[in-house]
Amino acid sequence: MSLSIHGRVQRGNFTLDLNEEFHNGEVVAVVGPNGAGKSTLLHLVAGLVRLHEGSLVVNGMTCDAPEQDVYVQPENRSIGMMFQGLHLVPQFSSAKNVELALQARKVSRAQRAALRGSLLAQVGAGHLADRKTAGLSGGEAQRVALARALAGQPQVLLLDEPLSAIDADSREQLRLALGNVLTDFPGVVLLVSHDPTDIESLATRRLNLY
Amino acid sequence: MAGSLIALLAACGGTSEESAQDCTVSVFAASSLSGALTEMKLELEEIVGCEISYKFGSSGSLAATVNNGVIPDVFISSGLNAVEDAGFESSAARPLVVSSLAIITKKGSEAGASISAVDNLLMKKWKFGLCSSTAPCGELADLVLKNAITVYGKEFDFSRQALADTEATSAADLLTKLQMDELDVVLGYTSSCSTNPELSCRVIPDLVEGQALGEKTTYYVIAAEKSTDNVKMQKYVSSAKFADRLVSDFGFEKLS
Amino acid sequence: MRRTAGSLSVIAYVAMSMVLIPIMGLFIRVPWTRIGDLFASDTARTAFWISLQTSLIATAVCLLLGIPLAWFMANVSSRLHSVLRAIVTIPVVLPPVVGGIALLAAVGRRGVFGDLLSSIGITLPYTRSAVVLSQVLVAMPFLVLAVENHFRQLDRGVVDASRVMGMSPLRSFFLVVLPMSWPAVVAGAVLAWARSVGEFGASITFAGSLRGRTQTLPMAVYELLENDWELAMGLSALMVVFAAAVILSLRSRLLNTSAA
């Protein structure tokens, strides 16, 4: 097992109870109505939201256990995340955005230059390396965000609506590229999506939040 | 520095049973006279029969105000430069009284006890202020400092930069800082001590060991155009009575 | 060009004139034949260097202290934020002389902390540091408010993303937040610098004015006004030229703030 969550998230009136275990190699589609807590689950694993009670364990390391006073900061967990709003740095180029993630993981300067190129190529965004992300189309930006999430070899990959900004035509292309990436990804993948085709073709398992 | 006084007086219109406050006489005076003139205000108003409005400031700023078109009935400055700068005829100005530079400290302060002569100013521990070179009190201070070198010896650094902590365009600014305890000692006019009991003045002696040290400034009074309102004021200000009053009660010195 | 309502345009011209006419008047009345005297004047040259040095140091201090403050303010609860914002804005509303008096009351010789400072050998009034301190007091609010405004509008998601990708809060501030805020920081710094150069009331009250030690350009103009007003005008005109040159050279940077 690689990711286990047994606990509760509480925020005002909102409550989310979880009792799940995920294994390496799984691509888990997180589905459910709006407001059920799909994004919250991803934010919890990332460390941006905390458990009210219970425990969250990633690859044997307890990241969040309020009753034992344990809380590991987001930067010390090994997570790659693609946000719904993407949150790329608009003034930086695609290459620089990806490089930031490598820099964050203390990758050396020389290696960063090589890696950022291959990461962008992997998602089909190699030609966008020097373009400022502010000027990219929705789909192009999502590719860069995906490349950034993969940088630093995370143990868990969190994808929040990874294909939502792309028009139907390019969607198939990126879905294939994403599928390849996910097949090669050794850890756990949590994928939030509303699109049945995405779920069909990418996920190995479904998690229903209701 | 000898001279006589000129003052022009105007009789104020109106019968004596009125409070005669419907006329105003404006007086521009160097701020070192502010203590004296303020204390004398009521009696002056009685003599003159008009309300008196004062404007005190450094002689230079008063001259600048006159240049900008605000002309007083009476103008009293320290030294003749301001009179000329204000556009008046210097020959029409008459000397009034004289004042000496003094070492001023707060009464009862440690500085007051330790600083008795100009050479004591060399002690770095005291915060010392003086007028800037362009103001009359500053010119005077410069002369005193220059004389100090002859009196005490060239090996001592009596320059402004070495001695002073701050300059101001009028002695009044310096006195405020002195009273706030932000300065320990100030070179100002002896007259300040008569009107302010908190201050203690040590007059800089004219001569030290036969050599000239102290310097004096002469106040000049000049009147603007005569008018019915200001004639009485101008006459009084030029009279010996006014000068004597300043000398006897407010620490000024007679013209020699 | 979009059409503005006629009446608004007229008012715009009036507003513009209120700024331009005094400046033009100054340049017309300056006795340009005496410019040589100005450059030769020891008072002017010394004051220029003191102003340059103190304003640059003050701006640096404002940046070092103000940017963290701005970030802190942008991230606290809204109640604490209103309080902090009010405190930071006080020097803007105060007459500068009052600022100087406040400084004397706090760190003057008889000030609240005066004795404490003296015991470690520091007297502040009448020193060049006092000039810098006065300038920092009046200029910092401008920098803090400008930068804080920008920080508040910053996409917090980008900060979250940088945390998840492995950056500690401090690293994400330096590697992501600051680079994203560069135009606002520059604009804030220019404002703070401009305010420092023009500072007069607080510094003449707290630091005094002594040629060669604490007399800045505004103080020099003030003194010159009483005995050589032509030189005072010349110096004033030169200050305007200098300020305009700096602002124009940074114009493109300032305009970019709206795009950031």
Kindly, what is the distance between the CA atoms of the first and last residues of chain B, rounded to a whole number of angstroms? 6 Å
| Average of the residue pLDDT scores of chain A | 90
Morphology of chain B: elongated
Mean pLDDT of chain B: 83
Order of helices and strands of chain B: EHHEHEHEHEHHEHEHEEEEHH
Biggest interface found: B-C, 23 and 23 residues
CA distance, first residue to last residue of chain A? 24 Å
What composes the largest sheet of chain A? 5 strands, antiparallel
The tally of strands of chain B reads 11
Care to describe what's here?
The complex is a heterotrimer of chains A (210), B (256) and C (260). Chain A is 34% helix and 26% strand. Chain A is of the alpha/beta class. In chain A, the strands form two sheets. Chain A has a five-stranded antiparallel beta sheet, with helices on one face. A five-stranded parallel beta sheet of chain A has the order 7-8-9-3-10, with helices on both faces. In chain A, α2 crosses α3 and α2 packs parallel to α4. Chain A is globular and about 45 Å long. In chain B, strands 1, 2, 3, 4, 5, 6, 7, 8 and 11 form a nine-stranded mixed beta sheet that branches. Chain C is mainly α and 260 residues long. The chains are: A alpha/beta (210), B alpha/beta (256), C mainly alpha (260). At the B-C interface, α3 and β6 of B face α12 of C.
